[in-house]
Amino acid sequence: MTTDEGISLSRGNGEAPQDAIDGRRFRDVLGHFPTSVVAITTTVEDDQPQGLVVGTFTSVSLDPPLVSFLADSSSSTLRTIRTAERFCANALASNQERLSRRMATKGIGRFDGVAWTPSPLGNPILDGIVAWVDCVVEQVVEIGDHVLVVGRVHDLRVESVQAPLLFFRGGYGDYFSNTALLLDRLVGW
Questions:
Q1: pLDDT tens digit string along 11-42?
Q2: Torsion angles phi and psi, residue 140, rounded to 5
Q3: Cys bridge to 168: 3, 15, 34, 149, which one at CB 3.0-4.6 A?
């Protein structure tokens, strides 16, 4: 079904559209939507930190306070989060590209030399971040090749006024606006 504006609407019946979308084209177009860079962290039974990087962290509900992120269903960190039933979302700062790349790699050593403190729930809060949100897992939904994890917010805090790290068109950057900076100073943020 197509609207007057030419927007294709899914019927929700599970059928594939007639014109299947090429994976490369899908990634190229969606790469034009800027996303935040968030490290999702937790610990395993012996308090060893685990983490992954997502560009899909978002607010879901104010009452109750819920947030969510999407992770690849094959992620070993996702399995740990599901077992621990808790996580902390760390909004990375614009100067933390190297940390983001490290956290995005597969294998061990993601936390070697990375300073962190435990959140109220025991999840890693990374040093130098913009803000963090500590959560217990509320719901997990399998969607395509990813899993949507919804968390109930337990605690949260802004750590710094640094600009956040963003991902756009396949690369990292930050958002810096003189107008926003001026308004923040006038409002006292």
A1: 455 555 557 888 888 878 877 677 889 999 99
A2: -130, 125
A3: 34
Q: Is the pTM of this model over 0.90?
A: no
How much is the pLDDT for 181? 55
- The per-residue pLDDT of the chain, averaged, comes to 85
Residue 90: burial class (beta carbons within 10 Å; 0-12, 13-18, 19+): buried
Query: What residue type is 107 in one-letter code?
Result: G
**What single-letter amino acid sits at 64?**
P
E strand or H helix at 178: helix 178-187
Bond from prior residue into 34 cis (ω within 30 degrees of 0): no
d(CA 64, CA 120): 19
Domains of the chain, each with CATH number or no CATH: 33-167 (2.30.110.10)
